[in-house]
Amino acid sequence: MPxxxxxxxxxxxxxxxxxxxxxxLGLVGCMSNESGTAPTPGSQITESPVEPSSGSAAAPIPNxxxxxxxxxxxxxxxxxxxxxxxVMKVGGLPACQWRASTGIGVQVVSVPxxxxxxxxxxxxxxxxxxxxxxxxxTSRKLEAAREQIASGTEIDPDRACDLFSSLLEIQGQPxxxxxxxxxxxxxxxxxxxxxxxxxxxxxxxxxxxxPRLSGSESEITRVSDALTSAHERNTS
Length: 236
Description:
The protein has 236 residues and is of the alpha+beta class. 42% of the residues are buried. A 7-stranded antiparallel beta sheet has the order 1-2-3-4-7-6-5. The radius of gyration is 16 Å and the shape is globular. β2 (86-90) and β3 form a beta hairpin. α3 packs antiparallel against α8. The chain has helices at residues 14-24, 62-65, 71-78, 113-117, 120-130, 136-151, 157-170, 217-235, and strands at 47-49, 86-90, 93-99, 105-112, 179-184, 192-199, 202-209.
């Protein structure tokens, strides 16, 4: 994977950061055993501050984004109280991040699914080039989405979630899946756990970075529960 100078998680290795960026787009296999096999974005993933804006109910302003998890939920997820958050752009999407001096961090992304889908053009190209795509119907669906993205036309939120599901299906998930949990970069040596879902026209991702992660069922459940809470708050 290419080295990234500035990424969503600045205290993890470039390989993990690249995998995290791919995970944000739904392209790292669930609890993958393979290192470095996931497609990565075609351009460098940069991190930059996001300025507060008026926003809308469907796309929370930064302060609202950082309230999708309560302090109690954050403490349960991280195992300790976390400092005040920062809002950055990760993979072109606004992300709220909590970073502790202990190396523990939490990241939350929750955006309209059509906004998430704007990032997919390069990923679709790489999926096609990887040889992972062997279903003609899915191939036509992704190609149509790629052309629509290239034209600058917004993808309908429900259709975007359908594309998310198609990407999961390519990775071996059951048809109609809307949720995935990734161990990054590998199941054997996890440095981060990333959970994602796309439903009701909204894409949400929660990521935990922690020294000495084991990838245990308890850790996975904590991240999965946090994803449920954040997604429900932004779709209720």
